[in-house]
Amino acid sequence: MAPGTTVAQLLLARAGDERPGLLFENERYSWRRVVVESRRRAAVARALRHPGPFHVGVLLDNVPEYLFWIGGAALAGAVVVGINPTRQGEELAGDIRHTDCQLLVTERRHLPLIAGLDLGLPAERTVVVDGPVDGRYRRLLRRARRSGGGAEEASGADPDDTLLLLFTSGSSGAPKAVVCSQGRLATIASTAAERFGITAQDVLYEAMPLFHGNAIMANWAPALASGATVALRRRFSASGFLPDVRRFRATYFNYVGRALTYVLTTSASPQDRDNRLRLGFGTEASARDREDFERRFGCPLVENYGSSEGVVTILRQPGTPPDALGLPPPGPGVDVAVVEPRTGEECPRARFDGHGRLVNGDGAIGEIVNRGGAGAFEGYYKNEEANRARLRDGWYWTGDLAYRDEDGWFYFAGRSSDWLRVDGENFASAPIERILSRLPGVVNAAVFPVPDVRTGDQVMAALELDGRWERGRDLFPTDLEAFLASQPDLGTKWAPRFVRVVGAMPLTGTNKVDRQLLRRSAWGGRDPVYWRRDEGSAYERMTPADIEQLGREFDAHGRRAFNPDFSRRGPHT
Fold first, then answer.
1. pTM for the whole thing?
2. pLDDT digits over 130-149, tens only?
């Protein structure tokens, strides 16, 4: 792809392409039709434009309209703001106001989400795209059809023009709106298509939400660059995954977070390998889930570490150890390291004992940074504090923890907010999660710090169990104790003091564990929670009297401010 290419140019290159570009339910669009519909949305956007930032909030499920509005924004010089429908109330309204949306595009099913909210724009600036609700939208589309859509303005797009504002997942902090320009997305499109060997003969199955970077950057963009077909599902469904893959004859799919976990909980069949999948690409699946998925469905998976910010990428490659992230791809401006956050010194390489236990985690675990420069970081919209946290001393700081072994492989250790300090020892959550995931019957495991009554933290875990367990049955704590005692690589301070058994793990809209909610819930709510009263004691079911006693201990040690407020917290499931 030539330098300076834009998404608008990639889209217009498909204007005469009659091959299938988009499949959705029983609908079928050629790439030519996709361009036509994008031109019409560009015309609508220009007709409704007001002074100020040309920002269009899109509050839609995965429907063709979403992709038409991204294409329309590219042609019209507008910016699409992906609005997460799993956020509600003031948080949802705050996302729309913060990003200065002058227009909100939505559908009837989401109208209750915004009813009565202060969105920072008049009610008439909300466009409903389905059904008989908004005759104005239909009239504008008809006018655009008659005028040909006004595509002549598209040639004015510049690679530096912002195209998308994509909110981070919010799994470990307040979501931030990541800036993504036309040029950056066009580069990602061609790079991903080449890396994964995507051609016009491929069908790319898309069930991850389009308001998140993974769906656009790992699916729609490479399809646009290569002329492949996008097979769109309104919302992710574990039970619908394989039927969709077969129906659409999909050859590729993308995933994020716990999606593979939930697909694997569906009933296995000898016919599971009856599919055309040749590749799956995603992030944050466990090594066990990847192995089980490849074995069951016969589809190889490619994992990487990355984010919507796009500054640091770490790829798995041949020879990568099972639990490792991989290595950064070589290239200009790439100098990825693990450093001690306070000093900026590179951390020593990880050492393991004969059982595979990390013995120097206190020193080896640090923050992933790119010391080669942060030029690829386009910033967060109207969030200078977050920008400064990412860019320090000319380096890009990811906010993620890792360690490296003697051969240089990177291992993920959690978010910086998942750092724990127990009895003066620092360690991270991800290695503990990997161990807990080995426990038979565990579907999901999340580890996070909760306050200790005296100082520092205690380890807490949330476990989602499959059908072989009865939720919270009496045998569980005994089995858990026996399992932990048999794990030779479990650090001496790593065993959870508190264990919550959840019916379903709380997730963000992108299938990532909502750690903020878990930390706020701590040991409150109605889920069964087991705890060890003292070091070395057996797990037992936590009672309201136990919680009251903990509160008195927080008070006695002058740490009332650290005590979670149980009275205002309901169950998180």
1. 0.81
2. 876 567 788 888 887 766 55
